[in-house]
């Protein structure tokens, strides 16, 4: 089922509270996108989910199991993969080493042929990675590194995929390719996807539900169709 439920209170940095209170949920095969202008709190919300910023109260549940006390590496072992902003990979490692390292990092028992199957999935979604298997990640373009970062997350066969601004800094063509892949991941993997994004058009092309944040608070929530049709709020909070 992969039902992912999150509740946060007073998330931020030291004495600065960015997210006073926020709750959301997503199920397998669904993509929830957090939208809003710069400074709205999207990135802080996701960082609070994985426990890398201060938070007064954090509730994270997956199919009823309480994961609230787990750090980011513990969440990964439980099936929650986090892809932070900035296309972060191991720059001095090859594409193959990045992917293999992610597969081995969770230290979970693997099934025969599992690694090969996950490599094949990564190459099907992002063919350029197979072409550059022996290339150092740090010598690749920003778009290629972003694809590698997402492929690394998929190597743990996540039940939840959390993405922070995956389209940031990418060309329109790469954005289109990336979101086409995200749509396929959502449709075929069965994992729940939670994404912070500023590119409204790209996000709603694959999202099912939206949360629009404004200064850390929910200004608008609903299905993609509801957000698209609310012209007043789209203009006020998204500038569209």
Q: What would you say this structure looks like, in words?
A:
- One of its GO terms (molecular function) is branched-chain amino acid transmembrane transporter activity.
- InterPro entries: AAA+_ATPase, ABC_transporter-like_ATP-bd, ABC_transporter-like_CS, BCAA_Transport_ATP-bd_LivF, P-loop_NTPase.
- This is ABC transporter ATP-binding protein.
- Keywords: Amino-acid transport, ATP-binding, Nucleotide-binding, Transport.
- Belongs to the ABC transporter superfamily.
- With 240 residues, the protein is of the alpha/beta class.
- It has ten helices and ten strands.
- A six-stranded mixed beta sheet has the order 6-7-8-3-9-10, with helices on both faces.
- Helix 3 runs parallel beside helix 6.
- The termini are far apart.
- The model has no long low-confidence stretch (mean pLDDT 91).
Order of helices and strands: EEEHEEHEHHHHEHEHEEHH
Major sheet description: 6 strands, mixed
Total strand segments: 10
Helix content: 25-40%
Radius of gyration: 17 Å
- Per DSSP, the total helix count is 10
Give the N-terminus to C-terminus distance in angstroms: 35 Å
Kindly estimate the percentage of residues that lie in beta strands according to DSSP: 25-35%
Structural class: alpha/beta
Question: Shape, please?
Answer: globular
Strand line-up across the major sheet = 6-7-8-3-9-10
Q: What is the average of the pLDDT values?
A: 91
Q: Which blocks of ≥5 consecutive residues have pLDDT under 50?
A: none
Family: Belongs to the ABC transporter superfamily.
Organism: Alsobacter sp. KACC 23698
InterPro entries: AAA+_ATPase, ABC_transporter-like_ATP-bd, ABC_transporter-like_CS, BCAA_Transport_ATP-bd_LivF, P-loop_NTPase
Pfam families: ABC_tran (PF00005)
């Amino acid at each position: 089922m992969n039902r992912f439920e999150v509740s946060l209170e007073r998330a931020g940095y030291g004495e600065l509270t960015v997210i006073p209170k926020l709750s959301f949920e997503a199920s397998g095969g669904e993509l929830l996108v957090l939208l809003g202008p710069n400074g709205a709190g999207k990135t802080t919300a996701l960082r609070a989910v994985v426990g890398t910023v201060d938070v007064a109260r954090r509730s994270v549940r997956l199919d009823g199991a309480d994961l609230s006390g787990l750090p980011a590496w513990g969440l990964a072992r439980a099936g929650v993969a986090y892809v932070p902003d900035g296309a972060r990979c191991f720059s001095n490692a090859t594409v193959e080493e990045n992917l293999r390292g992610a597969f081995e990092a969770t230290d979970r028992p693997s099934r025969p042929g599992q690694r090969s199957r996950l490599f094949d999935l990564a190459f099907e979604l992002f063919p350029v990675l197979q072409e550059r298997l022996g290339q150092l990640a740090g010598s690749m373009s920003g778009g290629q590194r972003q694809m590698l970062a997402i492929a690394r997350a998929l190597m743990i066969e996540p039940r939840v995929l959390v993405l922070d601004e995956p389209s940031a800094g990418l060309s329109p063509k790469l954005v289109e390719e990336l979101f086409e892949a995200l749509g396929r991941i959502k449709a075929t993997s069965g994992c729940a996807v939670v994404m912070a994004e500023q590119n409204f058009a790209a996000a709603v092309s694959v999202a099912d539900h939206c949360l629009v944040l404004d200064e850390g608070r929910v200004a608008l929530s609903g299905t993609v169709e509801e957000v698209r049709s609310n012209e007043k709020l789209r203009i006020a909070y998204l500038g569209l």
